[in-house]
Specification:
It is found in: Cytoplasm, Cytoskeleton. The protein is an alpha/beta fold. The chain folds into two domains: about 260 residues, Alpha-Beta Horseshoe (Leucine-rich repeat, LRR (right-handed beta-alpha superhelix)); about 80 residues, Phosphatidylinositol 3-kinase Catalytic Subunit, Chain A, domain 1 (Ubiquitin-like (UB roll)).
Length: about 425
């Protein structure tokens, strides 16, 4: 249902958190009591505001009375204003400047690209530590202004903003730890390296759904660009087409978590092969695609890696293979063991003084075997007795007296003997 246009932050706040819609809850930090105000004010006698305000998809276009915002929101720490109609940064500034303890701000899916963010407005965001600008189409100039005015910013979300390039900020942001920049169109690695220059303290870089191409960077340069990177997400980076791109991730000195799903390079391998080959190539990671890499799994993967490449031509063997051979030595190929049950065996059929070797199916019954032997021993099935001799059995032949019993239940193996005798009248 469409919300009415032209609604203010204060109007929506009063409606949503009125006593009728949001009952008062007692206890420290649970809400705030606002006394009665002069007639004509949009405020109720009291509102019960939590410290986390969610006002998404409410049709908000402006701030409303700033004094009332300050009276209500002095204790608020998180504010979700996503999917509203805020298009003027001045109106956003009026709201944020009156929320002194704000640490998390979500402005996703507001048409804020329609106005310019001035530095004096951005200054009102100074205490924010987590800022979400997904699908806001915020320009890099806007991002740079924010970075200069938010000295404590730790997490920045810039997804779905149609970025094809990255514009370097004139000032490095030393505080940023997490950058979430998925679902853009950052294909060339030269754009990604700019992120390393801007955010030297980056701990987590989420680049999923960017169609990233090959990592064209030397190992030394990668280490300098991302010296503190601990986690990287490269899901659906369609341009990563060779194992050398994966190997370059080892250049990040602190990297320990990698996400690599939907990579064309890996599609020809089974799920088990993909995981083992990646673990073996990335010796420092402790988590792959969200799953912990246990010590036992690492050793199994590294041994698998050796056996996988041992038959490859020397020029196709990766350097990691030689490192692992130094660690474990040259391994013998694993024996191929077929665990499927036998479907047939070769046995000796003894009748009178004749011996004939036959292949018999183990899924048939004793009665079916007798029918099969009729032409061999020239006896009718009703006049035929069968005795099975296990070559390792200590008790002699066992009569096969139950016509409906399956042959596999006797444990018959190659080389065993079946004796046929006529029934005595």
């Amino acid at each position: 249902m469409d919300q009415p246009s032209g609604r203010s932050f204060m109007q929506v706040l009063c409606e949503k958190y009125s006593p009728e819609n949001f009952p008062y809850r007692r206890g420290p930090g649970m809400g705030v009591h606002v006394p009665a105000t002069p007639q004509g004010s949009p405020m109720k006698d009291r509102l019960n505001l939590p410290s986390v305000l969610v006002l998404n998809s409410c049709g908000i276009t402006c701030a409303g009375d700033e004094n009332e915002i300050a009276a209500f929101c002095a204790h608020v720490s998180e504010l979700d204003l996503s999917d509203n109609k805020l298009e003027d940064w001045h109106e956003v500034s009026k709201i944020v400047s009156n929320v002194p303890h704000l640490e998390f701000l979500n402005l996703s899916s507001n048409p804020l690209s329609l106005s310019v963010l001035e530095r004096r407005c951005a200054g009102s965001f100074a205490g924010v530590r987590k800022l979400v600008l997904n699908n806001s189409k915020a320009s890099w100039e806007t991002v740079h202004t924010i970075l200069q005015e938010l000295p404590d910013l730790e997490e920045l979300f810039l997804c779905l903003n149609d970025y094809e390039t990255v514009s370097c900020s004139p000032v490095c942001c030393q505080s940023l730890k997490l950058l979430h920049i998925t679902d853009n169109n950052l294909q060339d690695w030269t754009e990604i390296r700019k992120l390393g220059i801007m955010f030297p303290s980056l701990d987590t870089l989420i680049l999923a759904n960017n169609n990233l191409t090959t990592i064209e960077e030397s190992e030394d340069s990668l280490a300098r660009l991302f010296p503190n990177l601990r986690s990287i997400n490269l899901h659906k980076s369609a341009g990563l087409h060779c194992w050398e791109d994966i190997d370059k991730l080892n250049s990040f000195p602190k990297l320990e978590e990698v996400k690599l799903l939907g990579i064309p390079l890996l599609q020809s391998y089974t799920t088990e092969e993909r995981r083992k080959l990646l673990i073996a190539r990335l010796p420092s990671i402790v988590k792959l695609n969200g799953s912990i890499v246990a010590d036992g799994e690492r050793e199994d993967s590294e041994r698998f890696f050796i056996r996988y490449y041992m038959e490859f031509p020397e020029e196709e063997v990766p350097f990691r293979y030689h490192e692992l051979v130094t660690k474990y030595g040259k391994l013998e190929p694993l024996a191929v063991v077929d665990l499927r049950p036998q479907s047939s065996v070769k046995v000796e059929i003894h009748f009178q003084d004749k011996v004939e070797e036959m292949s018999i199916r183990l899924d048939q019954t004793v009665a079916e075997l007798k029918k099969h032997l009729k032409t061999v021993v020239q006896l009718s099935t009703s006049n035929m007795l069968l005795f099975y001799l296990d070559q390792e059995a200590p008790f002699g032949p066992e009569e096969m007296k139950y016509s409906s019993r399956a042959l596999h239940s006797y444990g018959i193996r190659d080389g065993d003997k079946i004796y046929v005798e006529p029934r005595m009248k």
